[in-house]
Amino acid sequence: MKFKLFLITVFVTAFLLVLPYSLRTLDDNPLFPGEETYYHTRIARQILGHNIQQPDAFAYDGRPYNINPYHFLLAGAGAIVGFNNASTFLPIILGIVSTIILFLILQQFKLHVKLKTITLLFWTLSPIFIYTFTLSNPYSLLIPLNLLGVYLFMRKEKVSFVLSVICFAMIPLFGFYHAIIPIMVLFFLSIKKKSRLKKFYTVLTIIAFIAIVYNGYLLLSGNYLQNIRQIQPDLIRNSISDLGGKMGVGIFNIALLFIGLLVLWGHRKKFYSAYYSFIILALLYTFIDFSFIIYLNIVVILIGAFGFYHLLKRRWQLKIIKTLTQLLVICGLLFSTVSYIDRVGSMEPNNEIVDSLLWLKSNSDEDGVILSHESNGFWIEYISERITISDSITKHTPGARIIQNLSDEVFYSRDLVETTSLLQGSGVSHIWVDSKMGSGEVWTKNKEGLLFLFRNSETFKKPYNSTNVRVWEFLKR
Predict the structure, then answer these.
(1) Which of 141, 147, 136, 146 is nearest to 100 (CA)?
(2) How many CB atoms lie within 10 A of CB 30?
(3) What is the pTM of this model?
(4) Cβ pair 293, 246 in contact under 8 A
């Protein structure tokens, strides 16, 4: 039974993670999706080419690279199979490994086989799981490192403990705040079993030492990328995948979370760690970094699985109501997963965008600066190999407001003299515009701001034009 559950879990995980790329291939789009994936792949490519210089050569604001162990793993994989294949398949492999480790962790607890099955099912069907292990990102290594560390920590062998220390020692290299996660998990595991306290203190000392030394070195050397967190008004919408959140929890997972919390409330003294973990992670993702929702999702899955298991166990006066309730939950989870997989499969960039960026690479100077919306920055940096005014990391850096003001002044100004001066001062050679920018992302009217100034043929020329992408050249550099 255990082996059968193991095989089914691995198969379902592999199928769900490969599915988005299968959809892209059917749509004749072999490129890996997303924005941030191209940033991480660019860093890995530069590591392999020994071309990492501080600050980031493609960042207009002169910020340092945000390098972590994932980039070295991606660079090694890219050297063997190429970066397109590495960025596609490495997260998938890590996702399968994570599922296997979670299976092994669940085996350590005396749980009913139905509860373990539900937990694994919710794990693989989670939109955040699909995101983490489909789009190339550091969390696809962070999650299995944490899971493997926890599994090895729970075992009694000395060699397992040593290996767990190695896993946890790598966590602070991804960022100072990430060290909180293993400390919190190991603390709750050790409180329940006093024999683990000595091991916990050892791991705590090593994690704290590495976190302080490494981040202190980055700070003193000027290579520390400060992450300025701002609470956004659309936090709730971005946290729910069914409402359009790119990295969000399924709405049925949230419903099951509340059921689980209510069920556990009667045994809260026994399951206090679940409540405290949920509160701590919710605060971290709200006030420190939104991406901590990836960790929060694991707690949501565990509590939600317990809630659904309770629905299966309880006695119902009408079996038809019980069956319909269970079907509703399963169908809801499947709908969230399928719709999210379809979104990932249709994510940009597409072939039209790539063709325009390759043209830009061939028809612009190497020292040219490209102006576009920040969401296009990583594509321009990776494919065109050009500097951009802003990308999706810029908003988290100390100089974000200055750069945002510069972009806004250029985008919305109808004063040709002022706009020309700004473009000359910032070294902009080309402006890359897609259909999204002209339909609400930047402008809402056809002749708004810079769109109106583009009519001046002495200042701007449009050498590239396709259905959804236009590239304008600034002539008065």
Answers:
(1) 147
(2) 11
(3) 0.91
(4) no
What pLDDT is attached to residue 228?
45
Q: What is the rounded CA–CA span in Å between residue 25 and residue 312?
A: 39
For 465, the 3-state DSSP assignment is strand
Does residue 440 surpass a pLDDT of 90?
Answer: no
Task: Return the axis-axis angle of helices 293-313 and 319-345, rounded to nearest 10°.
Answer: 160
Q: Do 397 and 421 meet the contact criterion of CB atoms below 8 Å apart?
A: no
β-strand partners of 11: none
Strand pairing partners for 370? 388, 430
From edge to edge, which strands make up the β-sheet containing 428-434?
387-388, 369-371, 428-434, 469-474, 460-465
Per DSSP, the residues of 333-389 read HHHHHHHHHHHHHTPSP-HHHHHHHHHHHHSS-TT-EEE--GGGHHHIIIII--EES
Label the pairing between strands 460-465 and 469-474: antiparallel
Identify the bridge partners of residue 433 per DSSP, sorted by sequence position: 470
Q: Which amino acid belongs to residue 389?
A: I
Phi and psi at residue 460, to the nearest 5°? -130, 145
The pair of three-digit structure tokens given for residue 246, joined into one six-digit string: 């790119």
Look-up of token digits 């955040």: 128
Q: Check if the beta carbon of residue 71 is closer than 8 Å to that of residue 40.
A: yes
pLDDT band at 224 (very low <50, low <70, confident <90, very high): low
DSSP string for residues in 215-227: HHHHHHTT-----
Residue 116 has pLDDT above 80, yes or no: yes
Residue 134, helix vs strand vs coil: coil
The two beta strands, 460-465 and 387-388, are unpaired
Q: Which domains does the chain have, with CATH numbers?
A: 2-345 (no CATH), 351-474 (3.40.50.12610)
- Residue 301 backbone class (left: φ over 0; alpha: ψ -120 to 50; beta: rest): alpha
Residue with tokens 């005014």: 389
Residue entry with tokens 């599922």? 99
Nearest alpha-carbon partner for 128 in 328, 346, 288, 301: 301
Distance of CA 409 to the CA centre of its chain: 30
pLDDT in tens, 193-218: 878 899 999 999 999 999 999 888 87
3-state SS assignment for residue 434: strand
